[in-house]
Amino acid sequence: MADIYTLIDRDGTPFQVMAFSPPDGRKRAVRIVILPGANCDAKRYRWLAEPLSAGGAMVLVPNPPQLEHPSPADPKVKKKSIFRYD
Predict the structure, then answer these.
(1) What's the predicted TM-score (pTM) here?
(2) Among 43, 49, 77, 78, which has the highest number of CB atoms less than 10 A from its own CB?
(3) H helix or E strand, kind and range, residue 51
């Protein structure tokens, strides 16, 4: 089971961190930080974080900000391609 904490970065922007604590009696001096990328929510790493914490590690998974990228199908996006074959 994960606890969710809201932290504030140095710019004052809040972000969430999922913390997976090891069960009592299995705690070790191991800390693991999983950094999601590519607009991936922290919850998608539960499959990895839960067994690591069950093994005795404290696992932290920050939830990154979602970035908006324009779709190539958007008519406002200028598309230019160059194909070069040597």
Answers:
(1) 0.69
(2) 49
(3) helix 46-54
Nearest C-alpha neighbor of 60 from the set 52, 72, 71, 70? 52
51 token code pair: 């067994």
Task: Give Cα separations from 12 to 9, 17, 39 (angstroms).
Answer: 5, 15, 21
Distance CA 49, CA 47 (A): 6
Parallel, antiparallel or unpaired: strands 2-8 and 31-33: unpaired
- The residue length of the chain stands at 86
What are 86's two structure tokens?
């040597």
pLDDT tens digits, one per residue of 32-85:
999 987 678 888 999 999 999 999 999 999 987 766 666 666 666 665 655 556
